[in-house]
Amino acid sequence: MRRWSSGSREVEFHAKPLKPHSRGAGGCPFAYAPAELADTVIWRPELTAVTVILDAAPDGFGNAKAVDPLKLGALLADQAGVEGRHVVVADRDGAHSLWLRDPTPGQPLAAIIPLDKDFTTRVTSLLRFHRRLFGKQSGPPARGWPLTRYRQARLAMMLQALDLRMSGASYRQIAAAMGREDDAELPATEWKTSAGRSFAIRLVRDATALMNGDYRKLLRIR
């Protein structure tokens, strides 16, 4: 039996046993205990439009600036690998995510900006870092990054709704838990066309999509 508080009352139901999750569905064991994960996660650069990509400058650009992450400020994350070095630099206006494809000390660097749909966001992020690199105030991150409080709140509701649904809750119970008690108490005929039912279904549908891979879209801004 589980209980969820909806603010004005508790919603109670008997949870059904969950089916075993396959590895493809995200049910595989954690590589690390969640509580032991670092506070700052480094996402794949091709999925994160705010990541600034830096590589060795072409021949003839010896005056291009080298980047020493340790001199940029506090590092929230620092990870080196065969593909280069990934760092996240703290900034009061918003952290900078960098991918140094050539981390050789003193190496003059150039920026790489893929000509994709995130071009504007990538340019904005690069300009912010360029200002920081030359001792100026970075300015605000690209519009929509990080997640707004509204989107964070909705994501929390989506996860709660999905948890309830996977535990056996009906859409009525989910609607009640989400603060739509009045709709949840409607007769069956009225409930079928109610805003509360539609709201609960949307939350579960969108949360299911996130669980199945759409969570990557949270890293994009457009």
UniProtKB/TrEMBL annotation:
InterPro entries assigned to the protein according to its UniProt record, in alphabetical order: DUF7012 (IPR054278), RovC-like_DNA-bd (IPR018754)
Transmembrane segments: none
Domain DUF7012: start-end pairs: 50-111
Domain (T6SS Transcription factor RovC-like DNA binding): residue spans on this chain: 112-220
Name of the molecule in the record: DUF2285 domain-containing protein
